[in-house]
């Protein structure tokens, strides 16, 4: 993926990057992405990188549960300003 989001903004200094990594010793890990409800089953050691940009403060909420976590996208961040990448830096399209 290049260094631009769908909105055309670059990843620049206003970007927030969050890395979600499945534990090495926990098979069957699931990451759920709200408010859209997308999810990703992850093998041990898999990781997803979420990049968000936009103006203003960003509050990111993460709620763990047995076997995974729920990640809440800040509602003041437009979907076009969010990118999700897999561990090979390929864009994951079915989450947001």
Please state the CA-atom Rg, rounded to the nearest Å.
Answer: 13 Å
Strand content: 35-45%
Number of helices: 0
Query: Which blocks of ≥5 consecutive residues have pLDDT under 50?
Result: none
Terminal CA distance = 16 Å
SSE order in H/E notation?
Answer: EEEEEEE
Shape label = globular
How can the largest sheet be summarized? 4 strands, mixed
Q: Mean pLDDT, rounded to whole units?
A: 82
DSSP helix fraction:
under 10%
Counted beta strands: 7
Output the structural class.
mainly beta
Strand order of the largest sheet: 3-2-6-5
Describe the structure.
It is a single chain. The two termini are 16 Å apart. The chain is mostly beta strands and 96 residues long. The relative contact order is 0.29. The strands form 2 sheets. A 4-stranded mixed sheet has the order 3-2-6-5, with no helix packed on it. Strands 1-4-7 form a 3-stranded antiparallel sheet, with no helix packed on it. The protein is built from no helices and 7 strands. The protein has strands at 16-21, 29-34, 38-42, 47-52, 61-65, 68-72, 82-85. Helices cover 0% and strands 39% of the residues. Strand 5 and strand 6 form a beta hairpin.
């Amino acid at each position: 993926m290049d260094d631009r989001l769908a909105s055309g903004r670059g990843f620049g200094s206003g970007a927030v990057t969050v890395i979600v990594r499945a534990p090495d010793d926990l098979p069957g890990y699931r990451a759920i992405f709200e408010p859209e409800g997308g999810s990703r089953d992850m093998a041990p050691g898999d990781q997803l990188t979420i990049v968000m940009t936009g103006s203003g403060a960003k509050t990111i909420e993460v709620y763990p549960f047995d076997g995974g976590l729920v990640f809440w996208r800040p509602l003041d961040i437009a979907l076009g300003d969010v990118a999700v990448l897999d561990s090979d830096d390929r864009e994951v399209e079915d989450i947001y």
